[in-house]
Amino acid sequence: MRRLLLTLALVASACSGAGGEDLPGTTVAAAISSTTTTTTALPVTPTTKVPGGWHLAWQPTALVDGFAGALADIQGVGTVSMVRVGDTRIVETARADGTIVDQPTDGFVIPAEVHAVDGPVHAGFVPDSVAETLAGLADDEVMLGSTSAVLRDLDAGDTITFSGGYVATVAGVVDDDFVGDAEIVTARSDLQVFGSFLDKYAVFWFDGVRADLEAALESFDGEPVVLRAWGEPLVFRHGDSVRSQVAFKERFGEFTIRPNGGGFEQERAWREENIVTESIPLLGSVTCHRDFIEMLRQAMTELVDAGNGAVINRGSFQGCWNARFIAGREAISHHSFGAAADVNFYEPEDGPFSPTDPDLLVAMYTAGLTSGHVWVNPDPGHFEWFDS
Q1: For 188, phi and psi rounded to 5 degrees?
Q2: DSSP for 304-321?
Q3: Cα separation, 10 vs 209, whole angstroms
Q4: Using alpha carbons only, what angle is made at residue 272 by residues 269 and 273, rounded to the nearest 5 degrees?
C-alpha cells in the first residue's frame, strides 16, 4: 500500500507536468507517511498539551536572514527553534574509561551530519526524558540521534574526537524523529569546531488555520517556503523528498573517507565488500552497491516484461556509484553509496526517453526508488533509494 500511494503520486506528477516542484498537497515522503506509524501521532511532550501542532518550514538552499523573526511574527506561531545543519569529520570515538571504540588510520575520517540548535528552545520539541539534557547541553557535550548511537556503538558518557582536536562527551541519545535524523546534535554557538553550517529549517508551534499560515509564508523573501506539519513527512526535517545520510548509512553501510583537495578517497574495504559491476537489462554494465543494483535490475526487468523497454535510452545512463561530495558542500553524495542512478539523464521530459515517463516512474518506485523530478530543486533522471 505504501508503494502504491507513492507510485500514483509520481505518475500524477509526470502526467500533469509538475516540472519538478513538490507534489501539490503531498510529497514522496508524505505519501509514504500516510500509511506508516513512524510519525503519525504527536509525541507526548509538554508542547502537545495545548491546541495546535508542530510544524516545520524550510527554503531549498538556506533560510534567508531574519527568517525566525518573520516566522515568530505570524499570528498563531509560538516557539520557534532554528536548526543549522553542517558536516563534520570524526577521528576517534572512545568509552568513558578511554577505551577506543573507533579510530580510523592513515588520514581517514568518519563523515557525519551535525544539527545545531538552541538547547533550551529546542528542548520544547523533544521528549521529556531528554528535554532537560538538551536544555543544559554544554559546549563540550553533544547528543546523538538514535541510529547514529547504534552506528557509533556509543552511549552517554562516551567521547567523540573531531578533526581539529575538539573532544565532546555524549550527554545522551534522542530518537531520530525529534532531531531530523541528525547524527550529532550540538548547542554550541561556536560551530567552527565542526565545520561549515547553513540555516536549514525551523521547527515551530502553530495554533491557527493552515491556509492563513501558508498565505503568510508566501510573503517571505528568498526561495518559496516549504511547510510541513508533524506526521506529513516520513522524517521531520528539511529536504524530505530524500532520505537522510544516517538512513543511507544504516541501509547500505558506513564508510570512512580520506579528504584530498575538493574530493575524497573512499574506504577500500567498504568498496570491495559493497560495490559491484554487473550487467542488467536495458542499461548494460552498471557499477552500484550490491543491494541497489538488484533494485535497479528489478525496475528494468519490469519494464522489459511489460513491453516498455523502449522508454530507456542506454546512452543517457550516466552511472551509479561515484564517490564524491555534493557540489559546493562537504556532504556525501548518495552516489557515493552506490545507491543512486542517473537514467535518461539530460533527456527532455516531453521526449521519447522522458525521465518522467509514467512507466519508468512506476517501475522505479515499485523497486523502492524515488525520482528527483519531484524535488523542490528538480533533478529529472536522478533516481535513488528511498524505501526498500
Answers
A1: -65, 145
A2: HHTT-GGG--GGG---S-
A3: 28
A4: 85
DSSP at 298: H
Query: Of 223, 195, 213, 127, which Cα lies nearest the Cα of 332?
Result: 195
- Which pLDDT score, from 0 to 100, does residue 31 have? 34
- Look at residue 138 and give its three-state secondary structure: coil
Other C-beta atoms closer than 10 Å to the C-beta of 222 total 14
Domain 244-385 has CATH 3.30.1380: yes
pLDDT digits (tens, 9 = 90+) for 154-199: 999 999 999 999 999 999 999 999 999 999 999 999 999 998 899 9
| Residues shown for the chain | 388
Which residue has cell 571504540? 101
**Residue 102: CB partners within 8 Å, gap ≥ 6?**
90, 92, 93, 110, 152, 153
CA distances in angstroms from 114 to 181, 281, 360, listed in the order given: 10, 40, 35
Query: What are the structural domain ranges in the chain?
Result: 46-229, 244-385
Instruction: Tell me which residue of 351, 350, 299, 348 sits closest to 320, measured CA to CA.
Output: 299
- pLDDT tens-digit series, residues 52-111: 599 999 999 889 999 999 999 999 999 999 999 999 999 999 999 999 999 999 999 999
